[in-house]
Write the structure tokens for this entry.
Amino acid sequence: MSKLTSRSHVLFTLAFLAVALACLACSTEAAGLNQPPEGFKALFNGKDLAGWKGLLKRPYDNPSKRASLAPEELKKLQKEADEDMRAHWKVEDGALVFDGKGHSLCTAKDYGDFEMLVDWKIEKGGDSGIYLRGSPQVQIWDTDRPNAGVGSGGLYNNKKNPSKPKKKADKPVGQWNTFRIFMMGELVTVILNDEIVVDNVVMENYWERDKPIYPTGQIELQSHGSTLYFRNVFIRQIQREKGTNRLTRQERQEGFRRMFNGRNLTGWEGNTQGYAVKDGIMICDPSLGGKGDLYAADEYGDFIMRFQFRLTPGANNGLAIRVPFNGHAAYDGMELQILDHDSPRYRGWLKDYQHHGSIYGVVPAKTGFLKPVGEWNVQEVTAKGKQITIKLNGATIVDANLQKASTPRTLDGKDHPGLSRAKGRIGFAGHGDRVEFRNLRIKSLD
């Protein structure tokens, strides 16, 4: 075989391998396309428009006006909207494709609190958005448009609360972007391409400015005269639950008592202004301040405490134990971290001893046992002398002897005189984020 023939054979083989690898990558992507991750449901099946409907024409794109329609009139208008949807929204290669000529695409169902994942792509000059509970909007656009100036993800129609994203995280036009959107109550968090661009911001009611955002509503993929692409549209619904704050019969027999009555902050001291009580839940509320420490009135040395907590995206709080009133939770006592440590907010700098459940600066907790943001977690803390044990959702994440953990020094290299305290207050150390608590009960072992 000549050198020329041999070289041609090698080049042909390399070209064949490149094509094969490209096909393998495409098939691998296609195999996972529109397949929801654990805990999520697919809003788009990748094959057709099942589960979607067209948006009614003005003025009935307004949820309040739409609600006023008689059933027969609504049915008629919805039929017209669905015909428009089928004319301008298609499914191509596992993606929802809009031709830029019709109206928005809406979920057939309404949703309240949720976490949503969605991939999107636009063309040059593109403009779109995602309506939450039927209200505009999480912005999507070509950031080089003359009227843009900022990146995508902002709550474009806010007037009182922030409307612009914290940073630009868009990929170049023509590439796929990924939104992760949390909506809990009035608060919205938007993570674009793994960067936080909206951080727990109140979303305003565009339709009725004097009212809060509607409690439920449809999700809409907004059309704005541009060719649009969406895929991997997934949702995890977050249930709204009230606090029970009841002792079980066994807990009563074992000597547990309630720390929180579910109605008000009776029996608590400190930053009572930064905490609220609603539906049987104690809420560290950033709109009220949400910083500083809230203490139970009594002191405890050895105890077993049980409670439930629910995090919002990136939320940071702490359970202070054996701390003097108005002392520093992490140093004058001990602060057991309450933290959404998987949030991009902490990427790249969080220490092991700062993860949820850790004794701050002293003992790192095992990770992997927090439930998804918005779901209730169950935690139990047992303090017996120098031994601290923490269970999260049934798993032991800390079982440490304070003497051993601080000898010859603590992990953060700082003095923690609180490790030697035998007794003190129990409380929550708010850091300006919304965290909810319920079913607080305690058994003294002193």
